[in-house]
Automatic annotation (TrEMBL):
This is DUF1768 domain-containing protein. Residues 156-252 form the NADAR domain. SUPFAM superfamilies: YbiA-like (SSF143990). The lineage of its organism: Eukaryota, Metazoa, Ecdysozoa, Nematoda, Chromadorea. It comes from the Eukaryota. Residues 92-119 form a coiled coil. It holds the Pfam family NADAR. Keywords: Coiled coil.
Amino acid sequence: MPEMVRCCTLGGMNTDPACRVTTFNFEEQNIWITNVLNDNIEMSQRFDPFVVPFARSDQLLNEIGWIKADIAQMRTAVALLEIEKYTLRNGIHKLKAINSRMKSRLSDLEKRVDGLKGDFDVSSLDPSEVYVDYDKIGKNFILVGGAQDPFSAYFEVDIPDKEGIVYRSVLFYYCYKMAEYFNDTEAMKKILAAKSNREVEKVANQIDGFDHASWNQKKQSVWEAGQRIKFEQTDWIAKLLVCTGNSYIAVAERDKSKGDPADLRAYCNAEENC
């Protein structure tokens, strides 16, 4: 049998520094051992002192420390893998978006080339700023988005139109005109009674008879009209728009066909309008 470390009797105390196990406590056939090492007390269970030899515990503690370090490294590796997976997903999403924009540009160029005859200026085929990434614009730009942005369609401010109807935001106006376009009077009532932009969006998603192809021909003019009414009725927002100067205004919307902000700025620069 391997050499056992000397230990005290039940309930006793051993002052010999060679002794690492100070107490054996037999309760219901479970063996509790109190280890006193470097003034730290640790409890362990189910060790049979007659089977498991207790050598000097310094090496055992080192091995435990190494195991803990390995576990910590494994956890760090798992966390890094999760971050890489998230980054990869974002990269794939961005590539899909870029691919979609490239297809749109190619389709636009093909249509324009098909309509050309004879000599033409190749430089005129450059894509418009609407399809250019923000880092390729080549000039200062302002990113519009969020319910707290005065330029955003979600910004809540009372907007009365010529018929006397008051809308809580441009989005209210836009969705109301959408329901009106498809003759959904019930949706029109719900939109005017809504308390938030989110409620309006829910109603707009349930407009009877909605047709994407038909609305795509109408939506840009409706969006521009709503923004113009907001600038006409809210002087401080109109002045804020004029102060942007010649900066490019980029709208952070999933639907990119909301109207050209440059047209809105030109409209407000006219003294008779704003």
